[in-house]
Amino acid sequence: MRVRGAVFGYGTDSPIVDDWSAEFHPGTVTAITGPSGCGKSTRLYLLGLMVKLTAGAVEIDGQRVDHLSDAARSRIRAWRFGFVFQDAALDPTRSVLDNIIEASLYRNQSRREAAQRARELMDRFDIAIPPDRRPGQISGGQAQRIALCRALLGEPDILVADEATGNLDPRSAATVLEAFREHAVTGGCAIVVTHDPTVAGWADRRISLDPLHEGVSA
């Protein structure tokens, strides 16, 4: 995955992202770091095709994808991406199982197959709760692992995470990080936005947005 000369801003404000270029490779976990307000999360949304660039391009496998219609970008997100957000972003009105398999609806996957895969992931991440329980009835660590199951359900090529360990205890954080590592080992691309130096040091490479230390390091 590659982004070239990306520019993005809201309205007439100065761009939050200005002429940003970066590459992300299969088999690698990349951490994007930097101070608050530097646009880390915005860059993740650009990479995940959730917002459209003002200028520049996003490419996957050498093909430009940022300029496509909303429907086309939604299909790419459904088939090729898995997302993990800081607050888990679970629907409180739906069961844990339904939260996990929701994205499968956009891939035309049968509910039975999706539910079976969801239960396997719940077992893998030691989520020992009834699948019909609601998000309001589980802990924060369980909720984040549920979000991880949702992200991995479709075996995505690209896994993106926004401060996914920020609110977790050390054990739950280690579980999430190890899942990113396993995703990369199997040939996936993992991109993690973080302010935690421990998480950044754990990644294969780091893209720093700090003006004092800007650049890419292994």
UniProtKB/TrEMBL annotation:
<dbReference type="GO" id="GO:0016887">
    <property type="term" value="F:ATP hydrolysis activity"/>
</dbReference>
<protein>
    <submittedName>
        <fullName>ATP-binding cassette domain-containing protein</fullName>
    </submittedName>
</protein>
<keyword id="KW-0547">Nucleotide-binding</keyword>
<dbReference type="InterPro" id="IPR003439">
    <property type="entry name" value="ABC_transporter-like_ATP-bd"/>
</dbReference>
<dbReference type="GO" id="GO:0005524">
    <property type="term" value="F:ATP binding"/>
</dbReference>
<dbReference type="GO" id="GO:0005886">
    <property type="term" value="C:plasma membrane"/>
</dbReference>
<dbReference type="InterPro" id="IPR017871">
    <property type="entry name" value="ABC_transporter-like_CS"/>
</dbReference>
<dbReference type="Pfam" id="PF00005">
    <property type="entry name" value="ABC_tran"/>
</dbReference>
<dbReference type="InterPro" id="IPR015854">
    <property type="entry name" value="ABC_transpr_LolD-like"/>
</dbReference>
<keyword id="KW-0067">ATP-binding</keyword>
<dbReference type="GO" id="GO:0022857">
    <property type="term" value="F:transmembrane transporter activity"/>
</dbReference>
<dbReference type="InterPro" id="IPR003593">
    <property type="entry name" value="AAA+_ATPase"/>
</dbReference>
<feature type="domain" description="ABC transporter">
    <location>
        <begin position="1"/>
        <end position="216"/>
    </location>
</feature>
<dbReference type="InterPro" id="IPR027417">
    <property type="entry name" value="P-loop_NTPase"/>
</dbReference>
